[in-house]
């Protein structure tokens, strides 16, 4: 090292595929590379080790703020605590290795150094040797890897012994690429990744044939990505893939990820092909990050918004029998089981399982249940949990939190009095909900708090927006996402990442209802709308599409009729404009005897009649 502590020769070493711990370098310049579409902006650095200059160093995106806050000015000396390297293919310019700085420590500010150290010379552009990686111990987002000059990350595979990879050579013998370095412009790569989650198999059948698919989310020390397998690849790899295991994966097709339907921090996703190779890594070392969980006490689920994603660990206190029934819309046979989970927050929550998850659940053994990425649902003010495509469920995992919750349960927790976050607070018949007029609800400013508010009112239906009362939804039992008509006889569900030859109708009826004080627009969802109209969603949807006059008569039949509505109200913001969104959680015909008794009681309270 020089007197300034630079790691002389570091750059030449990593160009040869060698690793050096905590190298010290000097920053001599930087350049901002603008983001492109979904991709984040990047910062490219000119660095020196005292002997060589190197212009292909990039800051990982999580370090961008250091550059934006001018904490890495010219002449600053830094220690690179974590880094990864890969090879870029610059087309006619050949290959070049890129150094991605993931973590760093500023040792001396540039203003205190004030000059370039030594006489470093530019490194040559000769093709570099295969890439190696100094792997960090936890996952991180290094962001997009566009260099902004047409470059893309390329292959760096070879056998560990230095020879060419033969056709029968194990994929595990190749050096691997970081997930964050992949792009659609390269086709020779191998990743080594841990499976975070794995979906069930989804099937479809149409005039073109039958098909199936499953997807999995994988991660390494640099990032994460979704992989989907269709048909033959689904058959080949579904049983082989297990959550938490590590695999070598190569020869998948990359395409831009649909950010609307995935929260993974990657601009791309993968599709398996006939050439795809997947091989389990039997000797995964400690460099592979473990799956991270952000467990939330069950009691806090009561405060979460519908469709939020949550990690939970709890004891199975009760489990219903498997219920089998036929879906009205698709005619499919469905299986369902309800699980009650409890934890030391002295709260319980209902978990709904479907299909094989429901059938295979060991209800009699009261297992510890770990959920990652479960979806929160709401009905009648109560919250429940369900599994979606990227969710993970583990039973009796060997984790400290699992042992703690079992210890709590076996030492008194099983007999503890718990409150259910799934109990309906406004939607079920027989549950007490405050009677208010619309004006009283407005005066009380209902819905303006952190949680939704509930009240009930006797109101008359004034107007129904029939034109948009139905939508075409995914035919899968556990999905109600609106499908996209492909105009070829197929309907695509982006959430399930699949196409189907059919769909199901779902109701979303907006109606203006009023009492003697005011009126309000209210949304009535499928089940309640079917009860009010006396028809199934399928019948109503078909009428609106093919017999509009009959459909209008159906909606008119309930106009100017009065019902008892139990309502959920919550102020939501659209841009900067607050709107009070109100939806019905139950609707019932008016029981005039009970309602008159309520009115008499109210009059007595106002006049003091009947008081002692």
TrEMBL record:
Gene3D superfamilies: Nucleic acid-binding proteins
Domain Replication factor A C-terminal: 454-598
Record domain Replication protein A OB: where: 298-396
InterPro entries from the UniProt entry: Euk_RPA1_DBD_C, NA-bd_OB-fold, Rep_factor-A_C, Rep_factor-A_N, REPA_OB_2, Rfa1, RFA1B/D_OB_1st
Region of interest: Disordered: 113-172
Residue spans of biased composition, Polar residues class: 123-172
GO terms classed as biological process: DNA recombination; DNA repair; DNA replication
A Pfam family of this chain: Rep-A_N
Keywords: DNA replication, DNA-binding, Metal-binding, Nucleus, Zinc, Zinc-finger
Major localization class: nucleus
GO annotations of cellular component type: nucleus
Keyword Nucleus: yes
GO terms assigned for molecular function: DNA binding; zinc ion binding
Family that this chain belongs to: Belongs to the replication factor A protein 1 family.
PANTHER family found in the cross-reference section: OS03G0429900 PROTEIN (PTHR47165)
Quaternary organization: Component of the heterotrimeric canonical replication protein A complex (RPA).
Role description: As part of the heterotrimeric replication protein A complex (RPA/RP-A), binds and stabilizes single-stranded DNA intermediates, that form during DNA replication or upon DNA stress. It prevents their reannealing and in parallel, recruits and activates different proteins and complexes involved in DNA metabolism. Thereby, it plays an essential role both in DNA replication and the cellular response to DNA damage.
Descriptive protein name: Replication protein A subunit
